[in-house]
Amino acid sequence: MTNIETERLILRPQAIADFGVWYPMYADPQIFQVTNSPGFTPEEGWNRILRNIGHWSTFGFGIFSIFQKSDGAFLGETGLANFHRGIDEEFDNCAEASWVISRAAQGRGIAKEAAEAAHHWYVDSFSPPKTVCLIVKHHPASIRVAEYLGYRIYDECLYKGAECFKLERLCEK
């Protein structure tokens, strides 16, 4: 499996051992407001992290857990995955970028640094023509991260009752 290091971070594929630090991030109600996640029980969280782990063995890429290099603290997750949300065929056939940063780690550039490293690895490894992401309209910080990574809004949609932007990033070969 792939590990990525940046100046401040270690990214590694999610593992079941991450659940104890990962689930509290998703149990935070303020995280749900910006991720359009419906809020889930520990059982649903367990199933979600199992999905993320299984994604790696099925596709060879997926969601990384992000740790601070200096002390090993869990900071969030990022990566690209085939979520197949049912938005539309073109969107669902592309790898979709994702990042969620714990509230304690927000505002320090972690999302940009980690997502940029994950994108470089993914593009170098798989040479996709483009990647996509879905962001709720009321989350300007995530839109700024997407724009930093080279994403541009190309459409809007409703996803699980939330108004969202569909963004795409053309990948250079």
From TrEMBL:
Molecular functions (GO terms): acyltransferase activity, transferring groups other than amino-acyl groups
Please name the Pfam families in this protein's record.
Acetyltransf_3
**Where would I find the N-acetyltransferase domain in this sequence?**
9-172
InterPro entries reported for this sequence: Acyl_CoA_acyltransferase (IPR016181), GNAT_dom (IPR000182), N-acetyltransferase (IPR051531)
Q: Which UniProt keywords apply?
A: Transferase
Q: What is this protein called?
A: GNAT family acetyltransferase
Q: Which organism is it from?
A: Buttiauxella noackiae ATCC 51607
